Amino acid sequence: MKAGRALSRRGWVALAGALASTLTGALAGLLALGLGQGPGLGLNPPEAPLLPVGRSAPAFALPRLDDATRLLRPADLQGRVWVLNVWASWCAPCRDEHPLLVQAAHAQQVLLVGLSHRDDPRDATEWLLRLGNPYWATAVDRDGRVSASYGVQGVPQTLVIDRQGVVRHRHVGPLTQQVWERDVLPLVQRLQG
């Protein structure tokens, strides 16, 4: 009887070790293949460098979410201070910050422009209909190339862009009331002068 239990314990220990080794190998394989960089995690390839603050915002011409026949371009906003919020309907942290953006839009504190990152336009539209649309306009970046040109390595991400089209501030991650009141809003107000 004791030999059977001892063998059973040894068997469990061996099974646990084999399972841990297999899971570790599978995880390493997934990361090596780059599957951890898919849209579900909101990451771009690691070679996408952050666009430094103080540099001109990259030009783009993308279809608008509300009317795909119209294009949205940063040049259209020249002379205005605006906030670019990169988001996606599949992004949980984007949902966390969204009420703050809706509140800012209702208070008409800033000109908010959305950049829908690697998202299906139908899902993005439904998300905004359900949660409220704080954006003056939203550009559709289905493949994430424009987001990558802005150095977006995950969503959400928020950039303040001045009248000359220069990036003056970048916030990586979900906005909070504290970040909005301490960093974003005062800067926008100062730039609007």
How many separate domains?
2
Strand content: 15-25%
- Going across the biggest sheet, name each strand in turn: 5-4-3-6-7
Query: How many strands appear in the DSSP assignment?
Result: 7
Percent range for helical residues?
A: 40-55%
Query: Please, what is the average pLDDT?
Result: 84
Structural class label: alpha/beta
Describe this structure in words.
By secondary structure, this protein is of the alpha/beta class. The protein has two domains: 2-33; 62-192, Glutaredoxin (3-Layer(aba) Sandwich), CATH 3.40.30.10. It has five helices and seven strands; from the N terminus they run H-E-E-E-H-E-H-E-H-E-E-H. The strands form two sheets. A five-stranded mixed β-sheet has the order 5-4-3-6-7. The chain has a two-stranded antiparallel sheet with strand order 1-2.
Quick structural overview:
This protein is α/β, with parallel strands linked by helices and 193 residues long. It is 41% helix and 17% strand.
What is the fold's blueprint, element by element?
Blueprint: H1 2-33, E1 62-63, E2 71-72, E3 82-87, H2 92-106, E4 112-117, H3 121-131, E5 137-141, H4 145-149, E6 157-161, E7 167-172, H5 177-192
Parallel strand pairs: 3-4, 4-5
Antiparallel strand pairs: 1-2, 3-6, 6-7
Entry keywords:
193 residues, alpha/beta, Glutaredoxin, five-stranded mixed beta sheet, 5 helices, 7 strands
